[in-house]
Every structure is written in C-alpha cells, then in structure tokens.
Design brief:
The protein is an alpha/beta fold. It contains eight helices and eight strands; from the N terminus they run βββαβββαβαβααααα. 28% of the residues lie in helices and 12% in strands. The relative contact order is 0.14.
C-alpha cells in the first residue's frame, strides 16, 4: 500500500460516542481519484471521508479516525441515525453507476483489505459492522454498487456473506412482501415508523402513515447480497430467496 496524507478541513467531533464502531464503504462516482480528492478536501463541498483508496492501491488519509467525517449524510442503521459519528468512512475511487458500474481492480481491493485489517485492530470493529452506503441510506444511495466484491471481502474475514446468498435462482414470489420487514429491521435496515398491525404489512400509502420502504430495502439487499441481479431487475417483487437471506442475516448478525 502506498500511504499518502492530505488533510481535509471537513470534519468535527464525534457526537455521543467516544469511538467508531462501524465502517461505511462508498464509491466516489467520479472519473479520477484526484478529482475526488479535491472535492473531499474542498470546504465548499462540505463532504469528506477518513480514507480514499485509488484504483492502483494508493490510500489518502484525509480525516483522523478519532474525528467525525462527513460521508454518510442522512442515514440509519440498527436504530442509530447519526452514522457519521459512529463510523469510519472509506471512499473507493470508481466512476460509479453513471459510467457502467466499473469493477474494482485487484490492487484497490488488496489495499482496502489491508486498511480494514488495520482499522479492525485499532477499534475492535467486527466484520458485520462493515456496511455499504446503500445499506444506511437506501433511499438515496447505491454505492459501492453491484460490482463490489462483498463475497471476496467476507472470505478474508472482513465482511459477512450469508449462505442463503449463494446463487440458487430467484425463488417463488412472496404473496406478502411485508414478510421481509421484521428480519430487515433486526439486521439493521430502516423499515419505517409503523410495521402495521401484524408486524409486517406496510402502512396505507394513501396518507395515513409513513409507507414502509420495501422496494428500497430490496434494492439495498440485492446490490450487496444478490449482485448477479441485473440492475434493471432490482425493482422486481420480493421472492423467497430475499426472505431467506434476510432471515439468515437477522439471526446470525442482528444489529441490536
């Protein structure tokens, strides 16, 4: 790993916690790492991350891990809404969804793996606490996207990969898509303020309460654990495999 330092002014003190307990992975959605570096260090942009990893394996450290970087925005995981205060943000240089979901090269992944091992050692962070930006902000974000190798990261003990996520076809469409919600909530996803009387059925979308975002949860789940899904299929109805994945995630790695 080639380590570089360039301080970003975009940070502040952590709020309500003394140390980070998770990592959030992003892609830059820009054409070159230098452009992303400039933006992450621009006071006018009001965004930052603790680290930026280039495609060739260079790592810039921009904000001290003891400080609160500005990378997650409006976010939620496991009942927590200020994910910036709880997390270490890592930006991966990648052109993003607007440029064909480019793969993440091997040197970049090796550098990320080394960086995560260091972070785990410094802060005692568990593999299940390595999250996607799309996990914590599914209504707004889809990074690091379907080309990121979560399964490979899990093989190195740096993330998780449920057995139910192994390719086995789509499975039967669920007659009640709300069946996924208790398991999604237990794993950490935001499921809305009201799960309905039976704990599963979404509230009335006609204005009688916040609608549970089943499509957003499915998109986040599939981006991470069913990346063989073509992007245009991310909005397809919930099926038995989605439910099986969420059940395993909920009982093996509950966030609460």
């Amino acid at each position: 790993m080639i380590r570089l330092a360039q301080a970003s002014p975009n940070h502040g003190p952590r709020r309500g916690v003394s140390a980070p307990d998770c990592v959030i992975l992003h892609y830059t959605d820009m054409l070159c790492p230098e452009g992303a570096l400039a933006r992450l260090c621009d006071p006018a942009a009001e965004v930052s991350a603790h680290h930026l990893v280039a495609e060739d394996g260079r790592i810039w450290s921009l904000v001290s891990e003891t400080e609160r970087a500005w990378h997650a925005g409006l976010s939620f995981w496991g009942g927590e809404r200020d994910m910036n205060s709880r997390s270490i943000g890592i930006e991966l240089a990648n052109p993003g969804h607007g440029n064909g979901h480019a793969p993440f090269p091997a040197p970049q992944m090796r550098a990320l793996e080394g960086l995560l091992r260091e972070i785990f050692a410094r802060w005692s962070i568990a593999p299940e606490r390595v999250l996607a930006h799309s996990d914590v902000a599914p209504r707004r974000k889809q990074d690091p996207g379907p080309r990121f190798d979560w399964r490979g990261l899990a093989r190195h003990g740096l993330s998780i990969w449920p057995e139910a996520a192994e390719p086995r076809g789509e499975g039967e469409i669920l007659s009640d898509p709300g069946a996924i919600l208790p398991f999604a909530a237990r794993f950490g996803y935001e499921v809305g303020e009201d799960l309905g009387r039976n704990g599963r059925t979404p509230p009335d979308p006609g204005g009688h309460g916040p609608q549970t975002p089943i499509p957003e949860i499915l998109r986040a789940l599939r981006l991470r654990f069913r990346p063989q899904f073509p992007c245009e299929a991310l909005e397809s109805p919930a099926d038995a495999r989605d439910l099986a994945i969420l059940q395993e995630l909920a009982f093996r790695w509950p966030s609460a």
